[in-house]
Amino acid sequence: MKKFIRRTIFLLIFVAGHSVCANAQFKDQAFTQNYNAPNDTTAADTADVMFSFKRFFRGVNHKEPLKIGTMFAGSTVFIGCEQIYNKQYWKLPLIYGGMGAAIGLGIHTDNPYYYAGAAAIYWAALMDGVVNYDKSTYPQPGKATLYSILLPGLGQVYNGELWKIPIYWGGILGSYHYYSVNNKNYRRYKRIYNEATSTSTEYDGPISSETALYYRDVFRRYRDYSIVCIAGFYLLQAIDANVFAYMHDFDVSKDLTLEIEPTVTTSADSYAFGPLNPGSVGLTIGLRF
């Protein structure tokens, strides 16, 4: 259980560090196109800088609209700023009080479960800020991305693509299963190899040091592959949520129309058609898909 708690805390720290560049639309010139309405200042996720403390604090003070990526990235360090921007000030005592009490009890009792409770409150505060950000606009690619970062598969729920959740969760859990198995075998053969090569004790086991060394390296390599697969499925579902939120309004109708009609063109400085301006006759082809 302690290993699970340590991994949970590590994952939250990873999310905090990763959030500054979590979605590509917050990075410098990640997209030159703007897929949002010109007057939509809250849903436009394209930014000219990766992160700006000036914009973050001006947004928290409600002096200018704050993009969801900037809000989330800043709030991973300045906890509670999401609630301030969303004007839900009453939640701040719950967040600070809960985290402070959990950390204090953890220090006093030396019990790691209290630290896990503080990490859970921290995660819940970040999730709450994303959930309550600009509910009037749907879909928001930034919100879909952050949903997937905080909880794999939640971005697909936000986009209404529930059928993808078993695919990603199956990949993540399957990869974790192989990680656990390979790590267990790696530790086993590592222990055998250390015992077989130790000069302080006499080893008489059935597995030689050369065999133990071979399998130790094999299972370590497979364990590392499993970690890569876990990270790959995690990143893939976040990218998927972002892309399909952008393409939510893309025309995917079955209207495939080919229109061909005759046309007459003239020179650019005259619309007359005659001996002095013969122009040309041809076909205009229009394709709708």
Describe this structure in words.
The protein is mainly α and 289 residues long. It has three domains: 1-151, no CATH class; 160-250; 257-288, no CATH class. The protein has ten helices and two strands, in the order H-H-H-H-H-H-H-H-H-H-E-E. A two-stranded antiparallel sheet has the order 1-2. Helix 1 runs parallel beside helix 6 (112-131) and helix 7 packs antiparallel against helix 10. The radius of gyration is 28 Å and the shape is flat. Mean pLDDT is 81; it is low at 18-33 and 42-48.
Overall morphology = flat
The secondary-structure class comes to mainly alpha
Distance between the termini: 55 Å
Extract low-pLDDT stretches. 18-33, 42-48
Report Rg: 28 Å
Order of helices and strands: HHHHHHHHHHEE
Largest beta-sheet characterization: 2 strands, antiparallel
How much of the sequence is in beta strands? 5-15%
Strand order within the widest sheet? 1-2
**Helix fraction bin:** 55-70%
- Determine the number of helices (DSSP H or I, runs of at least 4 residues): 10
* Strand segment tally: 2
Number of domains: 3
- Kindly state the mean pLDDT as a whole number? 81
Note the topology:
Blueprint: H1 2-18, H2 53-60, H3 68-75, H4 81-85, H5 92-109, H6 112-131, H7 141-150, H8 154-159, H9 165-197, H10 209-246, E1 257-265, E2 280-288
Antiparallel strand pairs: 1-2
